Amino acid sequence: MAAVLVEEAVGPRTWLGESPRWDGVAWWWVDASVGDVWTRTLGEDAVCVWRTGRRTSLVQPEASGGVVVAVGQELYVLGRRDDGAWGQGRRWCGLGLGDGWLVNDGVADSRGRLWIGSIAPDRRPLDGGLLRVEPDGTVGQAASGFTLTNGMAFSADEQYLFHVDTFERAIWAHRVDLDIGEVFGREAFVDFTADDGMPDGLAIDADGGVWVAMYGSGEARRYTPTGSLDFVVVVDPAQCTSIALGGPDSRDVLITTAREGYGEERSTAEPLAGRLYQARSPYPGLATATVAVQKDVAVEKKRRM
């Protein structure tokens, strides 16, 4: 097993960095707890393009060149104005989950759908699910029986959806048929112990390796397609939250971290917590799929369960 220590942090400091994405030109991520949406084009400084003021759990590139952003229980499309500046988000659809429910991380598929996880009120065990959002904004539940749904990524052939349940300390491999948008069962890919930390964000490389950010251990790990640990990126902050592969040659690794739950004293004592870390991967990543939002759909809530 190979290990790399990354000591230099990049980018602005967040409270809860999450959902890093590469759109082919720039990196995106969110500060989930305060609702800031950030982007950084290579060679330029990071820019906060939208301050939602609400819990913001996901940013995902959109087919027309913008991004889809999950704010509370609603999905928005953020695009550029005629002058080239980023505008305010336009509501796409609501997820209709009811009081106390949360949504978390997600992923797009090659058909333009968005898959996103739901978390039950009070994080009730095994009541969360996987939601499937069609390009027209119709929402359906694809799977259930999870506690804290987190990172997701499709295999290169899109036969499997890999998905983290943080509180159950597991990465699941779901068999999927994207022609009909259905999930058919699941099997455990990796189970973790308390000593490992808690699995959080997820990415998959072109060789089938599964990367996972480990919250509590200061690591981003790569597992082979057979589930063996073979590469580790170590950073200073313990709270690694998510991971993405991208950059010009698809071999840059971007890791988000957090200082969530830190008091003022600890936040001051650990100034790198909440920063971004960048490393190099021995394996290239996969192209980031985009959400294909239908521009003429009504923004009224649609739901099919």
From TrEMBL:
Keywords: Metal-binding, Zinc
Pfam families with a match to the protein in the record: SGL
Keyword flag Aminoacyl-tRNA synthetase: no
Active site (catalytic residues): 200 (proton donor/acceptor)
Positions bound to substrate: 104, 122
SUPFAM superfamilies: Calcium-dependent phosphotriesterase
UniProt record, GO biological process: L-ascorbic acid biosynthetic process
Domain SMP-30/Gluconolactonase/LRE-like region: 16-259
Binding site for a divalent metal cation: 18, 150, 200
Keyword Nuclease among UniProt keywords: no
Signal peptide positions (record): none
GO MF, one example: calcium ion binding
Source domain of life: Bacteria
Cofactor(s) it depends on: Zn(2+)
Cofactor note: Binds 1 divalent metal cation per subunit.
Family: Belongs to the SMP-30/CGR1 family.
Protein's name according to its UniProt entry: SMP-30/gluconolactonase/LRE family protein
Source organism of the structure: Phytoactinopolyspora alkaliphila
